[in-house]
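---------- Forwarded message ----------

FYI, see the LamG-like jellyroll fold domain-containing protein record below. Original note from H. follows.
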Amino acid sequence: MDFNSSEVFPQIVISLVIVTVIFFAYMMTEQMKRSWTGYTGARVPILDSTCPSGNPQYFRQNPTNPSNTAILNYSENQLTGIEFSYTTFVYVSTDTDDGSNGWKTIFYKGYETSPMPLLGPGVFVSGSNGKNTSPVLRVVMNTYDGWFNTVDVEQIPFNKWFHLAIVLRKNSLEVYVNGNLANKKSFNGTLPYQNYQTLTVFPKVTTPYTLFDNTQNNPTRPSMGIPPGENMTVSGKFSGFISNFYYFSYAITYSEIQSMLNMGPSSKTCSANAGGLDQPPYLIDSWWTQQKH
């Protein structure tokens, strides 16, 4: 049998091209599959309805339990270090302002029995007082050097929906209100402390809990990293609603924040008690730009 190299060589080239195309098609398919799997695992709907601050809701972080529908995965392989994000719509009722000096809890990730000191993060709201005519929103985040790291946002409205986004990015905690960066805190020289404990929404806090600074005359109390002379008392949960509550295991971008903002509060309710709530316009920047100081 004659061996004609002029015929065999093109066949070899064609075969190599076909194999190469199949290989790259396979790799692209696998990459798309991994990207989609990572996306769906990185974006977790915690509450995709409108829920009143009634009974506490616990999202226990046990992936072996099939009843857990909101497993909040740690950030992995992020170039800038530890990252995560929470976004939700919040409606603070005037009932939150009960005349007490304590902070009211919206949600926190930590021990079920107490909102202190393990917070990764914790979100609280105060009533109005002599300094502020509207509530103050406070986000608390643990770090390896101290438990008490706060980001405060003043002039949060009563009886009006606003969108809240909490983003941990480049070792800084950023708080956005209605798509605007309201405040941030940099964790210089230390790292945020993530925990594997329960995410608790509308916690049942019956006994006020006070986190003191480390200058108190109690040598058995550990240092919490609170500035001298300051303390934080948590007493009860806030009165109101949250809606479209999501977690991301990465730092979402500004465009993603806008996308979550544009969703608006959910028209679904997880309780009949929420049915009579007015649904004001979602993009409510007017109160923010007019009252921010």
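H. also flagged this: The first helix runs from residue 5 to 42.
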